[in-house]
Amino acid sequence: MLIDTAKITVRGGHGGAGISKKPKGPDGGNGGNGGDVYIKGSSNINLLNQFSQKDLFVAGNGFMGARNNKTGKRGSDIEILLPVGTSVYDKKTGELIVEISNVGERILICNGGRGGCGGLTSEKGMRGEEKKLKLSLRLIADFGLIGLPNAGKSSLLNEITNAQAKIANYPFTTLEPNLGVFEGKCLADIPGLIEGASGGKGLGIAFLKHIEKVEILLHCISCETQNALKDYQTVRKELSEYKFELTKKPEIVILTKTDLADPSCVMKLTKGLNKVNKKIIPVSIHNYQSLEKLRKVVSNI
Fold first, then answer.
1. Are the C-beta atoms of 28 and 119 separated by less than 8 Å?
2. What is the C-alpha to C-alpha distance for residues 22 and 100, in angstroms, rounded to an integer?
3. Best CA proximity match to 135, nearest among 178, 176, 90
4. Where are the chain's structural domains?
5. Class of domain 5-137
6. Per-residue pLDDT tens for 56-78?
7. What is the CATH number of domain 141-300?
8. Cα–Cα distances in angstroms (integers) from residue 288 to residues 42, 159, 284, 297, 300, in the given order
9. What is the pTM of this model?
10. How far is 114 from 61, CA to CA, in rounded Å?
11. How confident is the model at residue 243 (pLDDT cuts 50, 70, 90)?
12. Residue 266: per-residue pLDDT
């Protein structure tokens, strides 16, 4: 199961204590600094799942200073991997701290405490910085397959990209986003939207947010529909009410399951949808030519 939100606490290591000079003895050294906490971008979208088992991450403490002015060893840094597309917020204020945009991107999130001074007197080391964070993942993809439940999105993803998304002939088979790749382009299958989704109905806004970072929308409408135009407008309305900017994204309408309708019906549905969108592609997963046409569109954008 994909977890796309989490709350964690991160803390830099405690600074080591300095050591004082003994009478007629060698000078004491400073304590070592505590380790820092870093976050690093990864392509693994399932990384937030790790926080269901552990939510506290602490870097290593600095070591005590030693005689002969020797500084204590520095505490070990820790690195927390997060999926690209993760926004990191301050849990208390809600302020955005950073957004992970690139694989391998490494960002300091918490400083370790300074080690205490040694010498004539000794100081204790300082505490490491601590932050309580809220993590929110929004998938980054070139194409997003959207539409009402049971519109054939997962089947289409499987055929185009050889993904292995679960499919079945009933609504809400897809309970989490699925990803697939075709010729270097990433496609995301977004769970079905229903009327009221922007207000939390059905699978609600938990998945609407994943459309925010998708470049192009592939809006799937089944030829089994009783009213294609209404289906189209229902999904568009939910996009608009969640965030109007989503309606400005480039969109291609895909008429799915054309093998379940006669050609005259497919033509009628296409003409009806042409009133709201000129880019209509009829497709059946059982029709090689129609799939090749769609693959060509995807690869050429």
1. yes
2. 50
3. 90
4. 5-137, 141-300
5. mainly beta
6. 999 999 999 988 888 999 999 99
7. 3.40.50.300
8. 35, 10, 8, 14, 18
9. 0.70
10. 10
11. confident
12. 92
Calculate helix-pair angle for 288-300, 153-161, nearest 10 degrees. Answer: 80
Contacts 24+ apart (CB under 8 A), 208-212: 208/238, 208/239, 208/242, 208/243, 208/246, 209/4, 209/136, 209/138, 210/4, 210/138, 210/139, 210/144, 210/177, 211/144, 211/146, 211/239, 211/246, 211/249, 212/138, 212/243, 212/246
Return d(Cα 49, Cα 3) in angstroms, integer.
Answer: 5
| Residue type present at position 176 | E
Of 70, 157, 151, which is closest to residue 115 (Cα–Cα)? Answer: 70
Q: Which residue has the tokens 């046409």?
A: 293
Has residue 167 got a pLDDT over 60? Answer: no
